[in-house]
Amino acid sequence: MGDMLRLAVGVMGNAASMLLYAAPILTFSRVIKKKNTEGFSCVPYVLALFNCCLYTWYGLPVVSYRWENFPVVTINGIGILLEISFILIYFWFSSAKGKKEVAKMVVPIILICVATGIISSFVFHDHRRRKVFVGSIGLVASVAMYASPLVVVRQVIKTKSVEFMPFYLSFFSFLASCLWMAYGLLSHDLFLASPNLVGTPLCILQLILYCKYRKNPIKEKPQKWPDLEYNEEKIKQEFPLDEIKESKLIVTENLNTKI
């Protein structure tokens, strides 16, 4: 009965995580359409790839005992494919500087994952020690992945707007964290439960902030005026007519002063 319950929770965790991993598809479809990354950060996707690689290895029979953590392998294997796809799209459409930044993040992560696999396979000779070694590194990766949205949380508190924190991302994160925490506890595996003990409160914080600020209008305005060559139609959309006239008047006065 206990194994069946654990498997059922693992299947539900797979479903919730699948929705979470697939959520950025909408963002990257827009990137492909506009052929521009629009200032999006690649850090969350690189950290998610790091997490998926480590926990896929953790769930394989080399580290875990036989296929006791098969649900962990399936969802993280799918996660690897999705995150690699997102990173490649980001790399393709980013600037030269953006490509360098992506490479600087991805290469060390690949090296760490390869080193983790080699050390756990040839240095440690039993499942318990391998799980402790790989699980400890995976714990750090998971905490980093769950902590990455704190930048967005800070932005929400500052602007009192949830524009940059979509509800479905926060909700799917909460759902996945709760289910995998339950799976880890049912498996008596702290390396699966512990990251989600950190992730669940962070997800609850995001949901509380969403409920608090969801009806608030966007209060933050651009701090700088656009360039004089900026598209006039975009200026009309982003700035009130009175502010445009005032800006033009200031620019004219400055030009007259210089002349």
From TrEMBL:
Q: Name one GO cellular component term.
A: endomembrane system
The cellular location(s) given in this protein's UniProt record come to: Cell membrane; Endomembrane system
Question: Its membrane topology, per UniProt?
Answer: Multi-pass membrane protein
Any stretches that span the bilayer, and where are they?
A: 6-28, 40-58, 70-93, 105-125, 131-153, 165-186, 192-211
GO BP:
carbohydrate transport; protein homooligomerization
Coarse class of the primary localization is: membrane
A GO molecular function assigned to this protein is:
sugar transmembrane transporter activity
Q: Which InterPro entries match?
A: SWEET, SWEET_rpt
Keywords noted in UniProt: Membrane, Repeat, Sugar transport, Transmembrane, Transmembrane helix, Transport
Q: What does this protein do?
A: Mediates both low-affinity uptake and efflux of sugar across the membrane.
Task: Give the protein family.
Answer: Belongs to the SWEET sugar transporter family.
- Its name, as the record gives it, is Bidirectional sugar transporter SWEET
Question: Source species, please?
Answer: Nicotiana tabacum
Per the UniProt record, the lineage of the source organism begins with:
Eukaryota, Viridiplantae, Streptophyta, Embryophyta, Tracheophyta
Q: State which gene encodes it.
A: LOC107829847
